[in-house]
Amino acid sequence: MLPKIIGRKEKISLPKLGLSLVWAKIDTGAYSSSLHAEEIREEEVGGLKVLKFQVLMAGHPKFSGKTVTAKKYRQKKVKNSFGQAEVRFLIETEIRIAGETYKAEFTLSDRSNMKNSILLGRKVLRERFLVDVTKTNLGKAYRHKK
């Protein structure tokens, strides 16, 4: 199967997190994907450890402040945009992009100083997509095809 062509920015959905058609930056220089989150904390609920965090989407007030609970999560050491190593929480969730749904891993980080709340890295793009850096939202053409 040939990879689909997407642009440098795409509208994606993260249905399990309640996010629908929000902008994500496609970053072929990053290995993993990242999602802006705040108030990230581990809690014990019913004797089990869970991860709670708020998803805050810049420019999307209807999605701002929603608290999400993840039962499956782990910590991962990553290099931030400044090349410094840090430990972040990582969750796995569904991503819908260009008419397809995949499982994807996202590290949670404070991206409030960044232009884009969601960054998609090579791991989710590999063998699925080619990126045309001159365009945006090419995935919409695939959403309407059956």
Question: Your description of this structure?
Answer:
With 146 residues, the protein is mainly β. The protein has one domain: Cathepsin D, subunit A, domain 1, CATH 2.40.70. The chain has 2 helices and 11 strands; from the N terminus they run E-E-E-E-E-E-E-E-E-E-H-E-H. The strands form 2 sheets. Strands 2, 3, 4, 5, 6, 7, 8, 9 and 10 form a 9-stranded mixed sheet that branches. It has a two-stranded parallel ribbon with strand order 1-11. Strand 8 and strand 9 form a beta hairpin. The longest helix has 4 residues. The radius of gyration is 15 Å and the shape is globular. It starts with a strand and ends with a helix. The model has no long low-confidence stretch (mean pLDDT 89). Keywords: Hydrolase, Protease. It comes from Algoriphagus sanaruensis. GO terms for molecular function: peptidase activity.
Corresponding CATH architecture: Beta Barrel
Along the chain, the helix and strand elements come as EEEEEEEEEEHEH
**Regions with pLDDT < 50 over 5+ consecutive residues?**
none
In whole angstroms, the N-to-C terminal distance is: 16 Å
- Find the CATH topology: Cathepsin D, subunit A, domain 1
Give average pLDDT, whole number. 89
What is the total domain count? 1
| Helix amount | under 10%
What would a concise description of this structure say?
The chain is mainly beta. It has a single domain (4-143), classed as Cathepsin D, subunit A, domain 1 (Beta Barrel).
Write the SSE topology.
Blueprint: E1 4-7, E2 9-14, E3 19-26, E4 33-45, E5 48-55, E6 66-70, E7 73-79, E8 85-97, E9 100-109, E10 118-120, H1 122-125, E11 129-132, H2 140-143
GO molecular function: peptidase activity
GO biological process, one term: proteolysis
Pfam families: Zn_protease (PF05618)
